[in-house]
Amino acid sequence: MTENAPIERMKKRAAFLAAARGASASRGAVVVQATARGDGRDAIGVGFTATRRIGGAVVRNRAKRRLREAARRLVPLHGRWGHDYVLIARAGTAKRPWARLLDDVESALISLAANQVPAADRTAAVDR
């Protein structure tokens, strides 16, 4: 694990679809999906999405801004290098108290990190 590995913004649809096939954790006002990238890079990929179900453009944009700031603070601490994370806004994301939203994101990231098998261990388990 490289301490100075960059955090990259995910923008390609394929990366979002790959994360959707991975593990997910739902906490309060956010759903976090995660998957190991498997390309050998140490960077952490982070993407954000909010569907029309949660509200109009103003509500969706506010929810994504809040998720971006939460990810900026928490992904370097609780994310795993070489993984991609997608934060999905839910109906209460835009109005949730800031401290509770941070707790939701942090709890989801910790849960995903605890349940993910490192790439080296996963290949050893497959070989058995």
Q: Average the pLDDT over all residues and give the rounded result.
A: 86
Overall 3D shape: globular
Q: Rg, please?
A: 15 Å
Proportion of residues in helical segments:
40-55%
Q: What is the CATH architecture descriptor?
A: 2-Layer Sandwich
Strand count: 5
In total, how many domains does the architecture comprise?
1
- Derived from helix and strand composition plus strand pairing, the structural class reads alpha/beta
Number of helices: 4
Task: Please write the string of helix (H) and strand (E) elements.
Answer: EHEEEHEHH
Descriptive overview:
- The chain is an alpha/beta fold.
- The chain has one domain (7-114): Ribosomal Protein S5, domain 2 (2-Layer Sandwich), CATH 3.30.230.10.
- The chain has 4 helices and 5 strands.
- α2 (57-78) crosses α3 (98-115).
- The longest helix is centred in the middle third of the chain and has 22 residues, at 57-78.
- It is globular.
- The model is unreliable at 119-128 (pLDDT under 50).
Key features of this structure:
128 residues; alpha/beta; Ribosomal Protein S5, domain 2; 5-stranded mixed β-sheet; 4 helices; globular; disordered C terminus
In short:
By secondary structure, the protein is α/β, with parallel strands linked by helices.
Write the layout of secondary structure elements.
Layout lengths: L6 E3 L3 H8 L2 E5 L2 E7 L7 E6 L7 H22 L4 E7 L8 H18 L3 H9 L1
Parallel strand pairs: 1-4, 4-5
Antiparallel strand pairs: 2-3, 3-5
